[in-house]
Amino acid sequence: MLRDTILRKTLFSVFFLLCWTVSHLLYPATLAAEEDAKKLARAGDRIITSEDLQDMIEGSKGRRFKTKASKLHLLRELVRVEVFSQEARALGLDKDQALKKAIKRIVNFFLAKEHVKRYVRGVVTVSEEEVRAYFRKNPDQFQTLEKIKVRQIFLETDPGDSPQEISKKKDLAENILRMIRGGKDFSELSSEFSTNPMLHRRGGDLGYVAKGALSPKMGEAVFSLKVGEVSPVVKDDSGFSIFKNEGRRPAGIKPLDEVREEIEKKLRQEREDKRFLELEKSLFAKYNVEIYEEKLQDDPLSEEQPAEDESIVHGDVEDKSSAPDAPHLKEGQPAMPVLPGLPQDPMGEIKRDKSGSAPSVQ
After folding, report:
1. Which of 250, 283, 310 marks a domain boundary?
2. Residue range 14-51, pLDDT digits in tens
3. Can you give the residue range of the structural domain that contains 49?
4. Looking at the domain assignment, is residue 32 inside a domain?
5. pLDDT for 284-319, tens place per residue?
6. Residue 152 and residue 245 in one domain
7. Which residues contact 175 (CB under 8 A, 6 or more apart)?
8. Domain total for the chain?
9. Is there a single domain that holds both residue 150 and residue 245?
């Protein structure tokens, strides 16, 4: 039981160390740089250097290690990996066949990712003229709707309100409108009277709004206003509103500078996908790939959703977070799916005390 627990926890540590080691194999540092690197920690006979720490920082996508405290936390992670992996070797766990298979899968995964990086992403280019040509040929994809900069005062009504309560709120709305017409500041009145928390905080500022983003009744009220005008009190099922038109953006086409990056990303993605499929086809032929699909069966009572046809080695986890929010372009390619058998938080199973001292194995 103890050995199984140690094996499970050590597997996470070895995964973390292997990711670190593979990055060194793919991007080897010079011997001179290693010799000159500043020593940050010692774990047995292993010296952890400032270069080791920097490699981990650069490899931590979406995370920032700018402060001393965050760097110290990461350094302790490296030390934990070292002591656990060294103890694993002392216990002979590096000879475990299941662990060897897991390590082989991880190495193959990183090699495949590196191959795609060099021979798919590394060879695809998109020129400025190609971006301009796409923009000229597809103006309909970059159209913008007319928008109005709206400010709102809102008094909410509840389904359970009595006629007297509704009448009281209507009277308050009419009184607020009289104050606006008397010269009171719209923003200050919204912050004072609006029952919606967001409107209260922002002085009623809704930003630029397209007509379709509003209910039909509200849309008609807002878009009938000239710039600077204030609407009468408008009633709908949710309450009483007063609107102000603070600016208008006419419908048109977005400028190239605003969509250049999105176009380039779209064209690059299309070409990378095409290049990837071509490379996959040639490699399948080169290595005589055969897939025996008929031997696969559904598990009894399986409720699993059908798998999407996306590649593990071609996916890019960063594309998801940077997907364009413009409706005229596709979102970025899906985030890289979880590779079966690879832990997503390799150190998550190692218990730590609050002081950050070395954890114990249970």
Report:
1. 250
2. 555 555 555 454 444 444 445 555 889 988 888 888 88
3. 2-104
4. yes
5. 999 999 999 999 888 887 666 655 556 666 664 333
6. yes
7. none
8. 2
9. yes
Identity at 256, one-letter amino acid code: L
Final residue belonging to a domain, choices 191, 216, 250 = 250
- Residue 117's CB is within 10 A of a number of other CB atoms, namely 13
pLDDT (mean) for 130-143? 96
Q: What are the backbone angles phi and psi of residue 156, rounded to the nearest 5°? A: -75, 140
What is the identity of the amino acid at 46?
A: R
Q: Does residue 28 sit within a domain?
A: yes
In our burial notation (b when 16+ CB lie closer than 10 A, e otherwise), range 214-235 reads beeebbebbbebeeeeebebbb
> In one letter, which amino acid is 283?
L
- Would you say residue 205 lies in a domain? yes
171 belongs to a structural domain? yes
Quick: pLDDT tens for 232-271.
999 998 999 999 999 999 999 999 999 999 999 999 999 9
pTM: 0.55
- For residue 55, what pLDDT is reported? 84
Q: In 3-state terms, what secondary structure has residue 93? A: helix
Instruction: Answer for the pair 133, 195: CB distance below 8 angstroms, yes or no.
Output: no
Q: Which residue blocks in the chain are alpha helix, DSSP H?
A: 2-26, 31-36, 50-59, 68-90, 97-116, 128-137, 163-181, 186-193, 197-202, 216-223, 256-286, 317-321
